[in-house]
């Protein structure tokens, strides 16, 4: 009977050992699964932060809902007239340099362009390059963007949070640019005031104008385009 009990005890111990081993294996597998899920979540979050801006594909900072631009190819707007380079049109997904001989750049206010040039020279020391998704725009191009925004958001009031009317936009006056990349936006947010350049709207991290005071101090950001 002692032999049977011993055998039973050994069998029970073996079963317990197997049970503990199985639990450990399940714990390891569960921990590995949680690590994999967490890593995948981080990757998705980082990728999601790179969603495009209004017209441009403006990087991760302050990304706004995607609005229809003036179309594709040569640039068909909401009306029947074709928009092209002479309207300052830059196809979605493309950028221009400050030195490019295109109306979107050459028709910018010379004071803004000079400030951008000086800032770009300083930023280059940090390996930051300025490129634009939007600069000067014709009034009809701007109005086309606004009309498209009204269709998307359902009202002029909501559209105005993201796009100005053709006769109200600083882009039409050549007094505003949209920066293409997140590193350039970040650099300008931190140092742009020294060159007179400021982010104007809190919901548009890419939009900069020459609004700093003589001491290089930027005014408080407006919440969106309806505020001024």
Topology diagram in text:
Blueprint: H1 2-48, E1 96-97, H2 103-106, H3 110-124, E2 131-134, H4 139-153, H5 156-159, E3 176-179, H6 182-191, E4 197-199, E5 207-210
Antiparallel strand pairs: 1-2, 2-3, 3-5, 4-5
Based on the model shown, name its key terms.
228 residues, alpha+beta, Muramoyl-pentapeptide Carboxypeptidase, domain 2, 2 domains, 5-stranded antiparallel sheet, 42% helix, 7% strand, globular, disordered N terminus
Summarize the structure.
It is built from 6 helices and 5 strands, in the order αβααβααβαββ.
The CATH topology of the largest domain comes to Muramoyl-pentapeptide Carboxypeptidase, domain 2
CATH architecture classification of the largest domain: 2-Layer Sandwich
Strand order of the largest sheet: 1-2-3-5-4
Strand residue content: 5-15%
In quaternary terms, these chains amount to single chain
Count, helices: 6
CATH level-1 class of the largest domain: Alpha Beta
Give the total of domains.
2
| Beta strands, count | 5
Mean of pLDDT:
77
Q: Could you tell me the radius of gyration in angstroms?
A: 28 Å
What best-fitting shape do the alpha-carbon axes yield? globular
Major β-sheet, in short? 5 strands, antiparallel
């Amino acid at each position: 009977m002692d032999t049977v009990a011993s055998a039973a005890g050994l069998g029970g111990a073996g079963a317990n050992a197997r049970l503990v081993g199985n639990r450990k294996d399940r714990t390891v597998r569960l921990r590995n699964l949680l690590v994999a899920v967490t890593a995948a979540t981080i990757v998705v979050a980082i990728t999601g932060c790179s969603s495009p801006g209004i017209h441009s594909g403006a990087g991760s900072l302050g990304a706004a809902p995607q609005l229809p631009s003036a179309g594709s190819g040569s640039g068909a707007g909401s009306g029947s007239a074709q928009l092209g380079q002479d309207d300052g049109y830059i196809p979605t997904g493309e950028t221009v340099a400050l030195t490019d001989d295109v109306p979107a750049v050459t028709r910018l206010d010379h004071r803004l362009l000079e400030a951008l040039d000086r800032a770009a020279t300083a930023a280059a020391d940090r390996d930051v390059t300025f490129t634009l998704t939007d600069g000067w725009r014709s009034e009809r191009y701007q109005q086309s963007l606004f009309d498209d925004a009204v269709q998307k958001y359902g009202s002029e009031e909501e559209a105005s949070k993201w796009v100005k009317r053709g006769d109200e936009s600083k882009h039409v006056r050549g007094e505003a640019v949209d920066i293409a990349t997140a590193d350039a936006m970040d650099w300008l947010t931190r140092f742009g005031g020294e060159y007179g350049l400021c982010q104007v709207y809190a919901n548009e991290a890419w939009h900069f104008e020459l609004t700093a005071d003589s001491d290089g101090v930027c005014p408080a950001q407006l919440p969106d385009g309806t505020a001024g």
